Amino acid sequence: MASTAPTSTSKLIFAPAGPQPSSARADQYTKGTLSRTQLAPSPFTQFHTWFTHAQASAVHQPETVCLSTASLPAGAVSSRYVYLKELDGRGFVVYSNWDTSRKAADVRSNPQAALAFWWHELERQVRVEGAVERLSEEESQRYYDLRARGSRVGAWASEQSKVLPEAEGGREVLEKRVREVERRFEGQERIPVPEFWGGMRVVPRVVEFWQGRESRLHDRFRYTLVEGEGEGEGEGKGKGEQTWKIERLSP
């Protein structure tokens, strides 16, 4: 009789939810509901409403957002947390290094991105998917000037995501670059934005608003961009000629 190799049953993490270590039941979401009548015609307006509510409700750093990108042709996906710095009539803007970082390499081969906001205090999520575009140097400089001096120096000094070999000094290599940049701009209050650093706008074609509900029967509404004019049930006109189709999704 053939024998079967034993299967390991050791789990480092299993159903990590509930107030007690022995509980495998996830927390229930009961803080709100979301209906079609509560939604603005434009996802930009709706996001602004939810974001200002998050600020007023003392949500911790509601601008924190998970930015996901993918490289081609491999299709490998990478994610990281960044800060939303701007919302305008075209999309959602984040700032970063666009030369050496992993996300920079991803968007060079595949200029698409996804954003995911999670506001625990309100039991809400917002998801955004769309094409990306770089902001102009002038636009990036306006935001760059608002940053603390140390952050502006750091943007010049850090070759983001490149290895700092311990054999060559590790962090000391980075700190040496910082000192060099500080000397370069000594006595100069206005530091020019590096050409490799700046804003990237995610121009959405899909935006989803998610409100947690009890028993995992969440309220989900998806805005999908429809080119040109359009009227009818489930559709809303945004800025300019944009029309957004609004649909409730199954949880």
What does this entry show, briefly?
This protein has 251 residues and is of the alpha+beta class. It has helices at residues 43-56, 102-109, 137-144, 149-157, 171-184; strands spanning 64-70, 77-83, 86-87, 92-97, 112-119, 124-134, 197-211, 219-226, 235-237, 243-249.
Structure in words:
By secondary structure, the protein is an alpha+beta fold. Helix content is 21%, strand content 29%. The chain contains five helices and ten strands, in the order αββββαββαααββββ. The model is unreliable at 229-235 (pLDDT under 50).
Mean pLDDT: 91
Secondary-structure class? alpha+beta
Silhouette:
globular
Distance between the termini: 47 Å
Quickly list its features.
alpha+beta, 251 residues, 29% strand, 10 strands
